């Protein structure tokens, strides 16, 4: 039986917990198997040419790792690195069709990876904005996005002191700091909303103004929120990951609903290509934040 693995739906980029769950899923199923071949149907997804992707044929998957939001399959020293972008999907199949897949459809197939036992996975991407990226490299640090990643927030050395050093002198809003992969790796739009709600902190608070107590609270919120999301996904059937992520979110994507902590109405601030959600009572002293996009539309 084939098993569908959800990783992201349109407009919701997979973040650290989802990529970590996917890495664990592939460790169980792909490690120890040789790659029979890789079919590339969307050449735009392939970002490297040396080594060629055909070099993966016959190599054995020895490990699966995560770097921020990047997935890394180590095949005898060559690394197949994937970034799923906003609308990427990964679908595992216990039995892949022997023939090459065909592009097109609602979720066009971009890359298909065949393993030696007939199993494998498809990488697909919905929508017209194509961001799915696949790299074949000798060292993950050769991938530009990996090379510039900030510290991993679940690593042992991500301490309150390390966070304080990151935030020092940054005159930018904390929401943007958390989302910047060069500052902290793996947190995106959804989990930055969740972290700031847990920390009872306004997304517009300037990073450099955080006190030592604020930083300690934020550090705890980051570690706890991400660790809990990873734990919730453990043992969950792969096809249920999407529902598990959505059910675990308290404010993100829940505009107009009640805050599960205080009962206030969750509000939204819209931007050109994204939005944030927050609770006024929990995070901004009861004061709604100005939705600048809506303000411009009303002028």
Automatic annotation (TrEMBL):
Domain Formamidopyrimidine-DNA glycosylase catalytic as annotated: residue spans: 14-105
Biological process per Gene Ontology, one example term: base-excision repair
Catalytic activity: Hydrolysis of DNA containing ring-opened 7-methylguanine residues, releasing 2,6-diamino-4-hydroxy-5-(N-methyl)formamidopyrimidine
Domain FPG-type: 250-284
Organism domain of life: Bacteria
Keywords: DNA damage, DNA repair, DNA-binding, Glycosidase, Hydrolase, Lyase, Metal-binding, Multifunctional enzyme, Zinc, Zinc-finger
Keyword Nucleus: no
GO molecular function: 8-oxo-7,8-dihydroguanine DNA N-glycosylase activity; damaged DNA binding; DNA-(apurinic or apyrimidinic site) endonuclease activity; lyase activity; zinc ion binding
Cofactor(s), by name: Zn(2+)
Pfam families, per database record: Fapy_DNA_glyco, H2TH, zf-FPG_IleRS
Homology family: Belongs to the FPG family.
Protein name: Putative formamidopyrimidine-DNA glycosylase-like protein
């Amino acid at each position: 039986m084939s098993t569908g693995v959800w990783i992201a739906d349109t407009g919701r980029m997979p973040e650290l917990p989802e990529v970590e769950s996917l890495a664990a899923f592939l460790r169980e199923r792909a490690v120890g198997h040789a790659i029979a071949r890789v079919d590339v149907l969307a050449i735009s997804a392939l970002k490297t040419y040396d080594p060629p992707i055909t070099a993966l044929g016959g190599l054995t998957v020895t490990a699966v790792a995560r770097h921020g939001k990047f997935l890394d399959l180590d095949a005898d020293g060559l690394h197949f690195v994937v970034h799923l972008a906003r609308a990427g999907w990964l679908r595992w199949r216990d039995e892949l069709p022997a023939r090459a897949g065909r592009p097109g459809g609602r979720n066009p197939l971009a890359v298909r990876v065949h393993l030696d036992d007939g199993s494998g996975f498809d990488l697909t991407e919905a929508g017209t904005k194509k961001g799915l990226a696949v790299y074949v490299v000798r060292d993950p640090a050769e991938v530009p996005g990996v090379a510039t990643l900030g510290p991993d927030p679940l690593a042992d050395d991500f301490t309150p002191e390390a966070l304080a050093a990151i935030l020092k002198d940054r005159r930018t809003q904390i929401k943007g700091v958390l989302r910047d992969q060069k500052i902290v790796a793996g947190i995106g739009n959804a989990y930055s909303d969740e972290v700031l709600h847990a920390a009872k902190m306004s997304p517009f608070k300037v990073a450099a103004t955080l006190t030592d107590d604020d930083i300690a609270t934020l550090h705890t919120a980051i570690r706890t929120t991400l660790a809990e999301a990873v734990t919730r996904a453990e043992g969950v059937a792969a096809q249920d990951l999407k529902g598990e992520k959505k059910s675990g979110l308290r404010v993100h994507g829940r505009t107009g609903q009640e805050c599960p902590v205080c009962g206030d109405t969750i509000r939204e601030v819209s931007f050109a290509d994204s939005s944030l959600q927050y609770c006024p009572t929990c995070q901004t002293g009861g004061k709604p934040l100005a939705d600048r996009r809506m303000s411009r539309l009303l002028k």
